[in-house]
Amino acid sequence: MGMITTKDGTQIFYKDWGKGQPVVFHHGWPLSADDWDNQMLFFLSKGYRVIAHDRRGHGRSTQTAVGNDMDTYAADVAELAEALDLKDAIHVGHSTGGGEVTRYVAQHGKGRVAKAVIISAIPPVMVKSDKNPGGLPISVFDDLRAQLAANRAQFYLDVPSGPFYGFNRKDAKVYPGLIQNWWRQGMIGGAIAHYECIKVFSETDFTEDLKKIDVPVLVMHGDDDQIVPIADAALLSIKLLKHGTLKVYKGLPHGMCSTHPDIINPDLLAFFQA
Q: Which of 91, 163, 209, 268 has its C-alpha lying 20 to 30 A from 35's C-alpha?
């Protein structure tokens, strides 16, 4: 585990375990590198070097009031990749982290990236507009901001207890530890960074980034994702990628890496090895 200091003085926390081909994991909002514990242990045991960082404002990184935008997130990853001398790396991102992977690979990854995976990810763009009529109305994201500002601690219990892991579905198997761990990760991060990241994950347009990527990309999405609906995300992203493969998971939720690692991890491994 370590820290790098970026050009603007922000400290970025990261974990770096093992040797072999590097796999870099990018977490979702408002979480941290810890959200990848299962995958990091799994791929470490398969002979990979596994790396995960806390995005600025999240986890153990600096609680920044500046730079809470996708261009800066991707630039931070570029600085981390340079500091760790990562080459032939596979980048895996969940949700907002999938957007971060998309922007990083498109704008900074030339010569360093072998493959990419975006899981339950926000690209191409989430918010509804004339150009994106299938998106979610801005009122949805305004409501998230209002709940965060009013009572972040309660909000960070309500999200994982319900739609994030699909625990609000009839007959869902509920894991209280996942809910508590989501809350723990969220509350470690900075309120201002999390608040501003709602705009980042809802309004950033990744259309041109997706078109630019020339490495193989695996797009994974559950068809019961209540956070990032599949129709306006994976099903559009796959049409923009030059070398994309789509895998749709029937009935799986947004947080499927945590609820169903027994399904997700082997599919990731197969893609890595292909």
A: 209
pLDDT per residue, tens digit, the chain (274 aa), is 799 999 999 999 999 999 999 999 999 999 999 999 999 999 999 999 999 999 999 999 999 999 999 999 999 999 999 999 999 999 999 999 999 999 999 999 999 999 999 999 999 999 999 999 999 999 999 999 999 999 999 999 999 999 999 999 999 999 999 999 999 999 999 999 999 999 999 999 999 999 999 999 999 999 999 999 999 999 999 999 999 999 999 999 999 999 999 999 999 999 999 9
**Beta carbons of 90 and 23 less than 8 angstroms apart:** yes
Q: State the catalytic residue, choosing from 54, 76, 225, 232.
A: 225
| Catalytic residue status for 254 | yes
Catalytic residue among 32, 95, 237, 258: 95
Kindly tell me the burial class for residue 25, based on how many C-beta atoms sit within 10 Å of its own C-beta (0-12, 13-18, 19 or more).
buried
Q: Is the pTM of this model over 0.85?
A: yes
Among candidate residues 53, 232, 254, 258, the one labeled active-site is 254
